[in-house]
Amino acid sequence: xxxxxxxxxxxxxxxxxxxxxxxxxxxxxxxxxxxxxxxxxxxxxxxxxxxxxxxxxxxxxxxxxxxxxxxxxxxxxxxxxxxxxxxxxxxxxxxxxxxxxxxxxxxxxxxxxxxxxxxxxxxxxxxxxxxxxxxxxxxxxxxxxxxxxxxxxxxxxxxxxxxxxxxxxxxxxxxxxxxxxxxxxxxxxxxxxxxxxxxxxxxxxxxxxxxxxxxxxxxxxxxxxxxxxxxxxxxxxxxxxxxxxxxxxxxxxxxxxxxxxxxxxxxxxxxxxxxxxxxxxxxxxxxxxxxxxxxxxxxxxxxxxxxxxxxxxxxxxxxxxxxxxxxxxxxxxxxxxxxxxxxxxxxxxxxxxxxxxxxxxxxxxxxxxxxxxxxxxxxxxxxxxxxxxxxxxxxxxxxxxxxxxxxxxxxxxxxxxxxxxxxxxxxxxxxxxxxxxxxxxxxxxxxxxxxxxxxxxxxxxxxxxxxxxxxxxxxxxxxxxxxxxxxxxxxxxxxxxxxxxxxxxxxxxxxxxxxxxxxxxxxxxxxxxxxxxxxxxxxxx
Length: 541
Known about the structure:
With about 550 residues, the chain is α/β, with parallel strands linked by helices. Helices cover about 40% and strands about 20% of the residues.
């Protein structure tokens, strides 16, 4: 058969295998029918050699199924005032594109006083003439099946598409010395390990142009790195449009500007995103087996999250746990990470790694870290938000609970934390929450370090201040160490007393190691703190 629009020849295997059945008349192929043409928008500034590699990689795209491959795509280069000869380079590459019937368009704007990445991307989107927009950074070399893989993942206009694997190429010079830049398969062999870096919609993201315009495009008042993506994604989510991950791959060429914290700009952007999305939280739940309790935790978050994102990271659990978690992956705005798929079947990366990995993927002003044996109650989220927003220097707050090693525990709840659930279920736990809410109505906050079973944290501490959890602590001690470090730069910690989060206590830890061995590891946390700080922590407390 032949498409009456794009003249592509295609066949249905049914007509090939069964003789005697007449092939139907020519008609629109599936691809033309859904108008899957793409405008690829690449902003650039003074990186012409890397840009050359990206443009050549887009000429080598391959396809396994014509139904999912764009029969037309244009490349739009938007130059933010480069002075390194980028325009001349693009003119040379345009000749190569023309010889292969590909379209490469070039636009140039004068360099502004501030970084104008959002304005540059929006300019490209306005010039785009096709249904789909693919935003691509100037330093992301495309794997040869990237376009195909991203289009295959697209479901409907209720979604936008990201990629699962961005492979780091730490040294551009190393690549240039060893391979032909047009051969992306050889690039893959140079540096094959999957990367932790999380891709956002602006560095590699596919979205319908009409959807992008509907939510207001990129906010051009953002001037730093990264937070404009979070703002756009939050606006998409508020309009019922969620991210779906594809199996697409790309190769990121590291450069110095990505390693520098633009503190003043980032702080400005963070304050802006707080102002626009002050109630948005990413809920992060590391899991290791014990799916009965983990499911209770996840269900409580689903009940009260108000469509905010959930990141579940599984640290090589058993098959029963993994199969149950796959059911949650089907829900909107739920991301599931399997460490076993990324690092091998015998991995156990530990709590600090899992927290850091999940936080790195977050795009909200706040993150809530939850042990998998906790249960949120109806007032817990709002109360913790109210407390943390009451003081601009509050970096982390924790709730009241039934089990922890500090003052947050209500001692009367500790001995009945299991029986109350067995006898009265979730209603019994919600009743605990109501009692706490009333008991502390005149005593909402106490400034103090909090225990790590549940913490609501300002995301800027990680993404701007760059204070992450230390993997030296594989569980016990990590939140003590982290809070000590954030207080050194002026942040405060507090107990939000009216918020109640039920905590069964050490379910995964004891289940993984056994109570005796788990207690030894628990004690090691204190020993490690002593090794790192000596008597400083004890004296300051």
